């Protein structure tokens, strides 16, 4: 891409694709592309030394607003109809559609379908920063998202701030939805988590999942449908169709990493548990042969979250019922700073630190 500066860290918000405004942040290690007109979604997180984008791309491509009109409304909401893959902010509701205080929330809420205002607040060869803003329409929240990239770093730092702009208490669900795809995702991939408790959701009994629905245990083993333990660190082979949804809780630390030893590449995130105590793990390995995937999806989401959906009630309503929804008092503001990092993987990963550094079991550390 032609930019005024030819080296160091660069940023541009002048790119258009299919009528969409794009923002591009890049340095020697990363190229990150965002859809400013559709939730600020990160649709590219490319590790430049290997020229591999770790993000998933939906089989239908990018359905931008205006170039595709649904023939009927979807009771779940518009989210999946316009899902391009990649990484979305999920706010102020997650999972399935629900109604809260008279406000209907479709699947995964409002923020990831809205156009965000933006401003480049730092643009130097050593560091760039992009500030985005949006105000949700059905629930009274304002969100800011600040993304920073430094020279030579494989880590993207993100700071999100949410403010209740009303004089009443309001609940929400708040999290991230990065979905990984091929060629990074494959049967050779390994999933790394800190010690935690893992639960397979109670739904999806009719799908060819690997794990018995509703099963819980200590990471990484759960009871498989064949009666044998399943090691969730390992991905199934491509020909073994599967669809599972997992929720991790009681995490010892807030981090997750997906690593492909064959490619020598890893991707991970770290975040503070006091804001996001849960991790959702969505695995769609061709197991859904009906709508919307029809067997075409091969992806895994690793999703830090404030809340988990209820087993009996949907979406935000269920999270309120099970006590995991986040409560904002009148005019309250909350912030979180977290990191996403791509790195060369050589084995023996120990953890990803709160500031986004990768630590290895031999004591070494990648910045």
What's a concise summary of this model?
With 367 residues, this protein is an all-beta fold. The protein is built from 1 helix and 29 strands. Strands 9-10-11-12-26-22-21-15 form an 8-stranded antiparallel sheet, with no helix packed on it. It has a 7-stranded antiparallel sheet with strand order 6-14-24-23-20-16-17, with no helix packed on it.
Description:
The relative contact order is 0.15. Strand 3 (30-35) and strand 4 form a beta hairpin. The model has no long low-confidence stretch (mean pLDDT 94). This protein starts with 9 loop residues before the first strand and ends with a strand. It contains one helix and 29 strands. With 367 residues, it is mainly beta. 2% of the residues lie in helices and 44% in strands. The strands form seven sheets. The protein has an eight-stranded antiparallel β-sheet, with no helix packed on it.
Q: Assess the beta-strand content as a share of residues.
A: 35-45%
Q: Distance N terminus to C terminus?
A: 26 Å
Helix run count: 1
Along the chain, the helix and strand elements come as EEEEEEEEEEEEEEEEEEEEEEEEHEEEEE
Spatial ordering of strands, largest sheet: 9-10-11-12-26-22-21-15
Identify the overall geometry: globular
On the 0 to 100 scale, the average pLDDT is 94
Largest sheet: 8 strands, antiparallel
Report the strand count.
29
Q: In terms of structural class, how would the helical and strand content be classed?
A: mainly beta
Secondary structure: helix percent: under 10%
What is the radius of gyration? 20 Å
Residue windows where pLDDT falls under 50 for at least 5 positions: none
